[in-house]
Amino acid sequence: MGNVYDVLQERGFVEQVTDPEGLRELLGSERVTCYIGFDPTAKSFHVGNLLPIMALAHMQRAGHRPIALMGGGTGLIGDPSGKKEMRRIMSREEIQQNAEALKGQLSRFLDFEGRRALLLNNAEWLTKLNYIEFLRDIGRHFSVNRMLAAETYRLRFETTGLNFVEFNYMLLQAYDFLHLWRHYGCRLQMGGSDQWGNICAGVDLIRRVEGGTAYGMVFPLLTTATGEKMGKTERGAVWLDPELTSPYEFYQYWINVDDRDVERFLALFTFLPMEEVRRLGALQGEELREAKEVLAYEVTKFVHGEDEARRAQETSRRAFRGEAGDLEALPTTFLEEDRLRVGIPAYELFALTGLAATKSEARRLISQGGGYLNGERPRAFDQLITLEHLQGGELLLRAGKKRYHRVVVR
Questions:
Q1: pLDDT of 84 strictly over 50
Q2: Rounded-to-integer distance, Cα 287 and Cα 273, Å
Q3: Residues 39, 113: one domain?
Q4: How confident is residue 232, by pLDDT bands cut at 50, 70 and 90?
Q5: Are residues 170 and 307 in the same domain?
Q6: Pick from 168, 184, 219: which residue ends a domain?
Q7: Are 151 and 215 part of one and the same domain?
């Protein structure tokens, strides 16, 4: 497989490294323990988290040992990096619940058997720190002037202002790296490019306190070819939890990516050989759908398993041909029977299910003939949909040629 540094660089993961030659030599000569931190701000990872997860998976496949660090301690403060305003302060209970849910997801992507990978929570050591000792032993190594010059803090300091609680975040993240260096032999921290200042602070702290050598690597902050943030849709974030984003919806996100993003995403979000990535990326016109199908299938398989990927692929192909396919695989909204007993206008139902972003958009969709109920166009945008329209206890909505949604009455 070669040096994993070269693999990550060729696939587009590497934006900045503290010591490129030193890190490449290290990764080529010994088994390295590395880590990435994940703050538990939600109960599920989303598509934007896939890049660091893939990086850890590449490291493990190359024989190195990844640490996935849950930020149960740092999450109590909130990272100001890349944020225009202070994060909402979350309760310990909420953070702990989120951390437990994220642990379950990570076990699908990394092999934790025999300590081949480690799953840790920085609450174990950060919440036990003595503040005075921390200031004396750790805080004295940090220059306020240098911290304010870092991109992490500078933008906030010059615009909305910086809370003192957040100002401590860099110290805590640097201490995490020091702790992992001391107790687990961790030599490399990775993260998004907004973490560059925090990661460099950790590398510097290890050098100052222990006289040790450590390395940092950051990935590019991904946006789509249209300039949008990765993993955002009209309906919100694309989650890895199938309860929040169904495998079919997840598959559809990838098959609908901009043509210009296909090759880049194949390199970043699949394990396909780069020769195959380049072949698929070179396809043009109608043939490019093959590349998108491969991308959608491979990422869905990685996140949801092969069975769900096949199911989503078949449903998507049938929808592309104008057929509904496997109804249970479609995105589904559950309605109480009383809602349909009274009746709900067609445009409200289309907006409710997300087939239209707003009620006015739903009215236009139906009025222009783009909305379908059980394969037929409603008579009017405000036609009442009632229990009489149910087929097997369900309704099948369609917007345009390909976007299906299932409504189940309970």
A1: no
A2: 20
A3: yes
A4: low
A5: no
A6: 219
A7: yes
Task: Specify the number of domains making up the chain.
Answer: 3
Residue after which a domain boundary falls, among 310, 326, 342: 326
Q: What mean pLDDT is predicted for residues 62-87?
A: 76
pTM of the model: 0.79
Candidates 302, 306, 307, 314; CA nearest to 252 is 314
* Mean pLDDT within 276-297: 94
Strands 384-385 and 371-373, by their bridges, are unpaired
In three-state form (DSSP H/G/I as H, E/B as E, the rest C), the secondary structure along the chain is CCCHHHHHHHHCCCCEECCHHHHHHHHHHCCCEEEEEECCCCCCCEHHHHHHHHHHHHHHHCCCEEEEEECCCHHHCCCCCCCCCCCCCCCHHHHHHHHHHHHHHHCCCCCCHHHCCEEEECHHHHCCCCHHHHHHHCHHHCCHHHHHHCHHHHHHHHCCCCCHHHHCHHHHHHHHHHHHHHHHCEEEEEEEHHHHHHHHHHHHHHHHHHCCCCEEEEECCCECCCCCECCEECCEECECCCCCCCHHHHHHHHHCCCHHHHHHHHHHHCCCCHHHHHHHHCCCHHHHHHHHHHHHHHHHHHHHCHHHHHHHHHHHHHHHCCCCCCHHHCCEEEECHHHHHHCEEHHHHHHHCCCCCCHHHHHHHHHCCCEEECCECCCCCCCEECHHHCECCEEEEEECCCEEEEEEEC
What CATH code is carried by the domain that includes residue 396? 3.10.290.10
Q: Strand 118-121 to strand 65-70: parallel, antiparallel, or no bridges (unpaired)?
A: parallel
Residues 237 and 163 in one domain: no
